[in-house]
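Bumping my old thread because nobody answered last time. Still need a sequence for this structure:
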């Protein structure tokens, strides 16, 4: 059962834009009602954070919070993940397993990336939402659960409904209330306050007494950038600034290495290149251990990340012409080859 990590729970929904203010109001209003909610918005805008705030404001706090990522599993696995199975239901079902619906009893079931769920499974979900009961695979027993279902998606579900890829009735059932989070580029007034919030937070995590502030120039530059990866991308850039400083060169390199990167483009760059601190945390089961925070080590990691993104970007732009790329990067051909090797930069399949 995946209870909320304390990390997410500590974060506030920061922002002064009309959009975020309205969302805060909605969270307060709806948290008590238990209406089905669907949270929509681009990647990294804060959908999971809104879902976790709903849970925390609700009277289900303290009961299970169970998340299912509907995009992560193939259909049959997702089905058994959601509804569970009886021992012997299929080859490999060596013991009975409780599904997420059962685990979430009296709490919240968070269906992330709901737009990726197949039509047959959508029907099963609808059935449960209407009648409240379900049968685990291979079982004869019916179960009833009391769960608050909150869904999220970065797809345009209305369009999916029009195109026949998402069930109309399920859409209406799930979206008694729908909360749309604007992309960061449409609410630039939130950027300085997010910068302030996260620089303070990261400095505290690094145990730095002097919470270094960014210069007005740097804040202005970051505020006019379109942030295709939204708040998650802003977090990554801030983590790097904390380590590398905010010189114009560093900022330009960071902002030019990330944009135009879309999840659907196989351009060799990672669309969600995780920030250094989150990478260290991920290696460490979600904790930020003071023992891991040698500045030298982090600087090295951050430099590698920046170099990997930047070199990868230039290589793509030059169609993997390495001598051209080395001239643009102003390093020798030999150094470039070494870096490609060391940083494990690989060409996209069409250039390999
Ligand atoms: N308004 C905000 N204030 C503070 N932190 C925020 C805000 N919005 C997002 N974040 C932080 O940004 C990060 C990304 O947000 P989150 O994971 O909720 O995005 P998401 O919409 O679920 O993204 P994805 O579609 O990629 O799953 C999280 O660490 C979250 O806490
Ligand atoms: Mg999410």
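Sorry it took so long. Here it is:
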């Amino acid at each position: 059962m995946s209870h909320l990590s304390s990390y997410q729970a500590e974060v506030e929904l920061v922002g002064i834009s009309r959009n975020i203010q309205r969302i805060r109001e909605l969270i307060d209003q709806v948290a008590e009602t238990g209406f089905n909610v669907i949270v929509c918005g681009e990647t990294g805008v804060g959908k999971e954070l809104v879902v976790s705030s709903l849970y925390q404001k609700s009277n289900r706090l303290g009961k299970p919070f169970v998340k299912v990522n509907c995009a992560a599993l193939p259909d049959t696995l997702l089905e058994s993940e959601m509804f569970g199975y009886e021992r012997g239901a299929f080859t490999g079902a060596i013991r009975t397993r409780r599904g997420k619906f059962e685990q979430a009893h009296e709490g919240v079931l968070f269906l992330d990336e709901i737009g990726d769920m197949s039509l047959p499974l959508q029907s099963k979900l609808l059935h449960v939402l209407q009648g409240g009961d379900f049968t685990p695979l291979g079982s004869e027993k019916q179960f009833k659960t009391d769960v608050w279902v909150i869904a999220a998606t970065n797809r345009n579900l209305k369009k999916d409904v029009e195109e026949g890829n998402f069930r109309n009735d399920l859409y209406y059932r799930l979206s008694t209330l729908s909360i749309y989070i604007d992309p960061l580029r449409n609410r630039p007034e939130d950027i300085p306050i997010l910068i302030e919030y996260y620089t303070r937070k990261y400095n505290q995590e690094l145990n730095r007494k002097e919470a270094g502030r960014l210069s007005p120039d740097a804040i202005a530059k970051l505020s006019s950038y379109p942030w295709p990866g939204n708040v998650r991308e802003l977090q990554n850039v801030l983590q790097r600034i904390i380590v590398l400083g905010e010189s114009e060169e560093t900022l330009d390199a960071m902002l030019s290495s990330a944009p135009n990167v879309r999840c659907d483009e196989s351009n060799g760059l990672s669309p969600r290149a995780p920030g250094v601190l989150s990478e260290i945390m991920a290696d460490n089961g979600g904790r930020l251990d003071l023992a891991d925070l040698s500045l030298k080590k982090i600087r090295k990691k951050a430099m590698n990340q920046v170099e990997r993104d930047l070199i990868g970007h230039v290589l793509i732009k030059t169609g993997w012409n390495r001598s051209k790329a080395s001239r643009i990067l102003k390093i020798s051909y030999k150094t470039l080859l070494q870096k490609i090797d060391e940083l494990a930069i690989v060409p996209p399949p069409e250039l390999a």
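The two ends are 41 Å apart (CA to CA). Let me know if any region looks off to you.
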